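Input record (one chain):
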Amino acid sequence: ADAELVLETAEALADGDPRGALLAVQKLSDSGRDFTQFMRDLSAHLRHLFVVQTLGEVPDSFSVTAEQGDRLAAQAERLSQAAIVRAIEFLAAGIAAVRDGSDPRIQLELALLKATQPQADLSLQALMFRIEQLERRLAAGPEGAGAAQQEEAAQRQGDAEPTAVSPPPAPARSAGAGPVAVAAQAVAPEEEEEPTAAPELDLARVETLWPAVAEAVREQNGMVGALLTDARPAALEGDRLIVAFPEEAVFKKKKAEGNRELVQGALRGLTGRTLSIAYELSGPSPAAEPIVLSEEELIDRLRDELGAEEILDED
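The corresponding structure, as predicted from the sequence alone:
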């Protein structure tokens, strides 16, 4: 791919600029270059950034011009290692999806949008990345803390109507200020509690977030995450969530009970609430006609669900 376009796209990642990332994709399309190859080249560039961060300099083995080397070093300083690893993983997932028949441009755009907008990715990993961003702003001082409070409140509210967030309380006046200063100090803690209050949570919201919960668990344990796709949130009683499996899914329910902490952690990351989880069997599933598969359909299903490989007789 064009080296300048790769550098330009990496700049968009470093700036957290989704518009710039999509414009780079449009330039790539106009040039007639291959989207999948571009994803490979961008992944290689991000690996270069990771190496530069680790070594503290651009190695002589990198085939880059002096100008490109300077830009490489500058980008390595602006992108965190966590952001680089996430972007590489998104691109790798996009390349794998293209192999399975997905549209390459969509996969490239999706990878870049997730990398530049962590709020677009509901996985637990993305939430941890967003927490890291907030911590950096808090460490930057009062101005950074104010921006962090506003962003944190907006992320917790999700789709709810946005509300104003109070700025950080002003520093207390000296002892000579008298009772007024004491009163201000007494009120300040109550004003600070509002941004950190737990968000409202109901069953409908848990049902909406459930696919993201399953995906977050799948990142930790693929089998347990797959089991959760057959379950559904059935009731929310205070801080107790009841999750229902079909009546015949006794083994799946038992396996989920043995990995309760994974689900609790994913829910806590997505909702900000610590919920206790109870599993139950929900009753018989609706009767269905037996599925009759042809030989070709059966082979395809064995490949997809069990990772089977068809071995053909060379004769």
